Amino acid sequence: MKRNMSNSDRGIRVLIAIAVLALYLTNVISGTLAIVLLILSGIFILTSLVSFCPLYTLFGINTCRTKTEAKK
């Protein structure tokens, strides 16, 4: 798997996952919405750990800087 997520993209995903978890633990969200958001948060954490998002490849998105872009 080739990386397609930048560090800032990964950080944003982790922050969103933490925010959803905090909302769940403080009972701000509950029920079906909470379950869906917690599953989505788990996916965000997983994709952040591996620096790869399968949806990005489907849509041709790559937020990771290449070596040629870094030299500019």
Provide a compact summary of the structure.
By secondary structure, the chain is mainly α. The chain has helices at 7-25, 31-50, 54-59, 67-71.
Could you walk me through the main structural features you see in this protein, from its secondary elements to its overall organization?
- The chain has 72 residues and is mainly α.
- The protein has one domain.
- The chain is built from 4 helices and no strands.
- α1 (7-25) runs antiparallel to α2.
- It is elongated.
- The mean pLDDT is 90.
- Approximate shape: elongated
Count of individual helical segments = 4
Briefly note the structural class of the backbone.
mainly alpha
What is the rounded distance between the termini?
A: 26 Å
Domain count, please report it.
1
Oligomer: single chain
- What Rg, in angstroms, do the CA atoms define? 15 Å
Summarize model confidence as the mean pLDDT: 90
Low-confidence spans:
none
Fold blueprint:
Elements: H1 7-25, H2 31-50, H3 54-59, H4 67-71
Helix pairs in contact: 1-2
Question: What descriptive keywords fit this protein?
Answer:
72 residues; mainly alpha; 4 helices; elongated
